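User: Hey, quick favor. My workstation is busy. Could you predict this chain's structure for me?
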Amino acid sequence: MINLIKDFLVEELRAIELENDWINIDVVYASTQGIYGFVELENEVELTARWEECSYELATRVQAKLPNSIDNLRWDIYLIFLVNDITSPLQRKLIENDRRFFRKIVIPNNEVNLNRLPFMFDFIKQFQSKRLVIHQEKMFLNSLKSVLPESATRLLGESFFQNGEEIDSDGIYQLIKKAEGVFK
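Assistant: No problem, here it is.
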């Protein structure tokens, strides 16, 4: 699972791996959107024993050393625990509700839907289309629909807003360009 996520970060988000001699963390990536630390653990026992050490390491070795020029990323740091076993909801909530330093996300192996990741993608689509699909386009179209007057949404038609899963941002642009004629 971690390799699919790494590939996505590098290929789609153009993230770079932060080289370091990590003690508790497996890998850390940085992009213009955020900083993502990943830890792959065997089970809930290991998660319970190690999550705070991992948090302290990311906080002291990355967050505390951000230069002023990229200090705004301080609010976009995520520590993601990938657990190769089922995790109890109570333990998961305890970790995810801890607001020290940055957000923490626990993803057990029985959770196939990884939409909880900060860069949101549908994990299942990877196996269907061999390409990860970002849901930003669908979210954009839904947001656009919610702010347009009802008369405009009727003119565009429902099919216009349902294209988010099939097209990328260039396709969205083309849809909007084509729709310009509807309003003239």
